[in-house]
TrEMBL record:
InterPro entries per UniProt: AmpC-like, Beta-lactam-related, Beta-lactam/transpept-like, DUF7586
Protein name according to UniProt: D-aminopeptidase
EC number of this enzyme: 3.4.11.19
Keyword Acetylation: no
Gene Ontology molecular function, alphabetical: aminopeptidase activity
Beta-lactamase-related domain mapped to chain residues: 16-335
Domain DUF7586: 353-437
UniProt superkingdom: Bacteria
Length: 457
């Protein structure tokens, strides 16, 4: 699969504009469509012939947190932890023992944003050798736990230590064995491996540069230590959208991409999943992924799952440009130049269609509100409103003959088919709401009763 020449030129033009206006030594990017890398590009201050390629490492900063979250969710899926567990259920001796794993993943534990001591991103990890004392006592908790989102780097240091405690191995080794090697990400490492970019700061008022130190942050590593490439991160983006056997399934990744923490006041176009940042672009596109920054480096990895698109942007400058805006624009340009074709309609396999389920399809009413129930593949059902308002949801079949809501108001709720003594369907019971074949059907057990419809006097 390849992009059209006009699309490729538009992408390269956006990259060139970002490198020039952002005054960054170099900029590398990739676009993924339906799990396949369809474009890579780069620009360098040294001009043509000296630009980085898809194998050049950059520091990716807080994108590291999404990798750590994948490790934590693997522990959850294996039944070794529960997201509702307090941290000290599995990891003793921290300053955040009462915080739940869910709160740490979603930055809702109320922890301070940064650890004690000098700027951790620019100083050796040996200054903070003990995970048990990342905070001064006065700065451990800055907000009431569980109430709102407040970004915390030490929170992910704790999650990395949790992985180490449960697995009995260093978090970086666990990451390599359980995620990087299975996904073929051979150029993602804790420390830089050639070829890699050097990190620089650019003077805000003059075109001069200052090298940034390439530090090993030690215990704070799970918050932002990793180095990677556009090639490797393109593979990781495809995984985050689709899942991979032996790493994490698609359902768990969808859970990670689901809003799990309220946004800060006034930031209604941004949210937080489980180790994944969420946003809504001005044109309404839902983006999942993560940004990253460390001294000398900026990075973004963004997904539009609905459109099957992802982008990666890496640069080696401390500040002066926004990789988030560039990553969003790369997705937008592909979506506008080459909109995705919908999958062709195909009928359900006739041998797999249960006549009893087929009989359930069609109009249903909650009170006077009309809905339609649709039969989908794999015995799944979909409820859609037919009137001006109503709650839509998809439902997954269960072994006991019920269905479980997958989205919207009815997420996790149970849909049951109710029958009378003669075996005929009388109504649908959806989280106690009674849906009938006629509006307020007097033959169905409508709560409060129904005498039928009478003309207004």
């Amino acid at each position: 699969m390849s992009l059209l020449p006009a699309t490729r030129r538009a992408l390269l033009h956006r990259l060139a504009t970002a490198q020039a206006q952002g005054r960054t030594p170099s900029l590398a990017a990739a676009v993924v469509r339906d799990g396949e890398t369809v474009w890579t590009g780069s620009r360098s201050m040294l001009g043509d012939g000296h630009a980085p390629d898809a194998g050049t490492q950059y520091r990716i900063g807080s994108i590291t947190k999404t990798f750590v979250a994948v490790l934590v969710m693997r522990l959850r899926d294996e039944g070794l932890i529960d997201l509702a567990d307090p941290l000290d259920t599995h990891l003793k001796g921290t300053q955040a023992g009462s915080a739940t794993i869910h709160q740490l993943l979603t930055h809702t534990a109320g922890l301070g944003a940064e650890p004690r001591g000098p700027w951790w991103e620019r100083t050796p990890g040996s200054l903070r050798p003990d995970i048990a004392a990342l905070y001064d006592e006065s700065a451990q908790t800055v907000l009431e736990p569980g109430r709102r989102h407040h970004y915390s780097n030490p929170g992910f240091a704790y999650l990395g230590a949790l992985v180490e405690q449960v697995r009995g191995a260093a978090w970086g080794d666990v990451l390599t064995d359980e995620v990087l090697e299975p996904l073929g990400m051979t150029r993602t490492t804790l420390l830089p491996e050639a070829p890699h970019a050097g990190g620089f700061a650019v003077h805000p008022w003059a075109d001069v540069m200052l090298p940034e130190p390439l530090t090993d942050t030690g215990a704070m590593g799970p918050a932002g230590q990793l180095w990677s490439t556009t090639g490797d991160l393109a593979r990781f983006a495809a995984f985050l959208a689709e899942g991979a056997d032996g790493v994490l399934g698609a359902d768990t990744l969808e859970e990670m991409r689901t809003p799990a923490a309220p946004p800060a006041f006034g930031s209604w176009d941004a949210g937080q999943g489980l180790g994944v940042q969420l946003s809504r672009t001005p044109d309404g596109r839902i983006i999942a992924g993560h940004s990253g920054s460390m001294p000398g480096f900026l990075a973004s990895l963004h997904l539009s799952v609905e459109e099957g698109l992802a982008s990666v942007v890496l640069t080696n400058v401390t500040s002066g440009m926004t990789t988030t805006a560039v990553a969003n624009d790369l997705i937008r340009l592909v979506a506008e130049h080459e909109p995705r074709f919908p999958d062709p309609w195909r009928p359900l396999d006739a041998d797999a269609v249960d006549p009893a389920l087929l009989d359930l399809t069609g109009p249903w009413y909650w009170g006077a509100n009309p809905f339609a129930l649709h039969l989908k593949a794999d015995r799944r059902l979909q409820l859609t409103p037919l009137g001006a308002a109503g709650r839509a949801s998809r439902f997954r079949p269960e072994a006991d003959g019920t269905w479980t809501g997958l989205d919207g108001y009815y997420t996790g709720e149970t849909l049951r088919v109710r029958r009378g003594a003669d075996g005929e369907v009388t109504h649908l019971d959806l989280a106690t709401f009674v849906l009938t074949r006629k509006p307020y059907d007097p033959k169905a057990p409508v709560p409060g009763g129904s005498d039928g419809w009478t003309p207004a006097s």
